[in-house]
């Protein structure tokens, strides 16, 4: 299905003990997101309203980046201090993906953020109206 419908399930978190955090989730057809600093929650939840075209671009990015093939968990030897955590739950076109990591990312053999993951994060940020 290559349409502009939103996924059936979508939740993405990226953050840690330092630096900014982003939490995006689809709730009852509404896309809600929250930015925070230092790994906490700001308590300020904003709603985004992606168009069908924006959802279609997101779907294309998910396909192109192979998100459905991501492993359930990514960890590295660098997952002990100043950790950046991330979590993804995505239900789309009859497929379900649940993946998470701690200083480790799909397409990277170490703690470096992979191009694949950066592009996925950019696709999420475009959905909520933040051009990366």
Structural class: alpha+beta
**Which oligomeric state applies?**
single chain
Helix content: 10-25%
Number of helices: 2
Strand order of the largest sheet: 4-3-2-1-6-7-5
In total, how many beta strands? Answer: 7
Approximately how much beta-strand content do the residues carry? Answer: 35-45%
List key phrases describing it:
single chain; 132 residues; alpha+beta; seven-stranded mixed β-sheet; 7 strands; 20% helix
Account of the protein in words:
The model has no long low-confidence stretch (mean pLDDT 88). It contains two helices and seven strands. A hairpin with a 3-residue loop joins strand 1 and strand 2 (20-27). The two termini are 27 Å apart. It is 20% helix and 36% strand. The protein has helices at residues 52-64, 115-127; strands at 9-16, 20-27, 30-37, 46-48, 73-75, 84-92, 95-102. The radius of gyration is 14 Å and the shape is globular. The chain has 132 residues and is of the alpha+beta class.
Write a compact overview of the structure shown:
By secondary structure, the protein is of the alpha+beta class. 20% of the residues lie in helices and 36% in strands.
């Amino acid at each position: 299905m290559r349409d502009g419908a939103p996924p059936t399930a979508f939740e993405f978190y990226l953050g840690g003990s330092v630096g900014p955090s982003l939490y995006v989730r689809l709730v009852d057809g509404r896309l809600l997101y929250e930015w925070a600093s230092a790994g906490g929650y700001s308590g300020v939840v904003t709603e985004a309203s992606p168009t069908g075209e924006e959802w279609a671009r997101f779907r294309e990015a998910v396909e192109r980046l192979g998100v459905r093939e991501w492993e359930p968990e990514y960890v590295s030897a660098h997952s002990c201090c100043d950790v950046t955590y991330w979590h993804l739950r995505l239900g789309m076109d009859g497929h379900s993906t649940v993946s998470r990591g701690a200083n480790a990312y799909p397409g990277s053999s170490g703690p470096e953020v992979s191009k694949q993951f950066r592009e996925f994060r950019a696709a999420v940020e475009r959905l909520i109206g933040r051009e990366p």
